[in-house]
Amino acid sequence: MARKIFVGARIFDGERFHDEKALILADGRVEAIVARNGLPDGETVTLEGGVLSAGFIDAQVNGGGGRMLNDEPSVASMEMIAGGHRPYGTTSLLPTLITDTSEASAAAIEAAKAAVKGDRGVAGLHLEGPHLAPARKGAHLAELMRPVEDRDVKTFIRAREAIGTLLVTIAAEQVTVAQVRELAEAGVTVSIGHSDCSSEAAEERFDAGASGVTHLFNAMSQMGHRAPGLVGAAIDHPSVWCGIIADGHHVDPKALRTALRAKRGEGKLFFVTDAMSLVGSEKDSFTLNGRTVRRERGGFCSKLVLSDGTLAGSDVDMISTIRYGVTYLDLTLAEALRMATLYPARFLRFADRGHLSPGARADLVHLTDTLAVSATWLSGEAA
What we know:
Blueprint: E1 3-7, E2 10-12, E3 17-18, E4 21-26, E5 29-35, E6 43-46, E7 51-54, E8 56-61, E9 63-64, E10 67-68, H1 75-85, E11 90-98, H2 102-118, E12 125-128, H3 150-163, E13 166-170, H4 177-185, E14 189-192, H5 199-208, E15 212-213, H6 229-236, E16 241-245, H7 253-262, E17 269-272, E18 285-288, E19 291-296, E20 303-305, E21 311-314, H8 318-328, H9 333-338, H10 342-347, E22 364-367, E23 373-378, E24 381-382
Parallel strand pairs: 1-6, 2-7, 8-11, 11-12, 12-13, 13-14, 14-15, 15-16, 16-17
Antiparallel strand pairs: 1-4, 2-3, 4-5, 7-22, 9-10, 18-19, 19-20, 20-21, 22-23, 23-24
Helix pairs in contact: 1-2, 5-6
C-alpha cells in the first residue's frame, strides 16, 4: 500500500481543525489523521505552516483558463476549465452550460460523460437553462428559453445515469411539480433559479424534491413583506440549499450576512463562483452568445459586464470567495472553508469529497497563513 504523509500544517477535516497532527493517505484516499509521533512508513510531505484542507468544490463554473463551455462543449473545454480553476484550490467542479441550443446541451452531456471518467476535476455537469424565465434572464438569451417538456425529463434522467451527477437550474414557471418530482426521484439535482415565481410556487417545487436555489438573490423574485418571492422561500425552507456568489458585486454583503443569519437549516448556504472564462486568463474581454463581455477592474475583484451594464457571471475564484467570507461576511475560517468544501459536497451528494474522513478522496489544497493557495493534489498526486 502506497502511503503519503502530510505534516507541518493545521489540518481542517471539513468539520474542525487538528493541530500538531499528520494526514495519512493510502492509494489516493484518506486513511487517518493521527498524532505526529510513531508515524508509519511512507513518503513524507512537509508543509510550512498554513492550513491543509479538502479541495474546494464549485457547483457553477461557466468557464476558466480562457475558455467558456458554451464556446465549445467538449472534453477538452471541461478539462481546460478545471485546470484554470485548480490554482485557486478547486479540485472538483461542475462545468456549467448556460442557456443555449438543444445541440449544445446534447454536446455538453456527451462531453461530461467522458470528462468525469478522466477524473481530472470534472465531477459532473450543470445545465443552467434553457428552462429559465425570460423575465429574469440576466445575461442569458431569452429567445432560447422554453418550458420543460417530457422529452427533456427523459434526457436529463438518462444524462444523470450516464454522468453520475447532473445539476439542472430551472425556473419554477417552466417546470411542473410532477416533472420536478420525477427528476428528483431519478437522482437529478434540481435547483430553482432565474425565476420570477411566487414563494408558494417555489415551495411546491421544493416539497416535490427541488433541493437547491441557484445564486441566491440574483435573477429571481426578491423578498417583500407580503410577497416573499423565491428569495423568501429559499431562506425559509429548511431543506433547501442555496449557492451564493461572494464577489462584492453580485450581492451586497449586508444582504449576504442577513441570509447567513436567517437561513433555516444549518449549513445550507455554500459558495459558487459562477465564473467565466477570464478566471485564470489575462484577457479583458470575451464573447458570450455573440455579445462582448468586458472586465471592469476595481473593488474586491473585477466584475464582468455586457455593454448595457448587465452582470455576466463573475471574475472571482474560490479562494477569493473564502477570503471575502472571512473579511466581509463575519464568517470564521472554519465556516468559510465548509462553504467551499463540505456544504457543496452534501448538496451534490458527493459522499467521498469535501472532507478528510477515512475513505475520502485525497483531493487537497494547502493554504498559506494569508489564505493564498500554495498547492493542490488530486487523489494524493500534486496537480
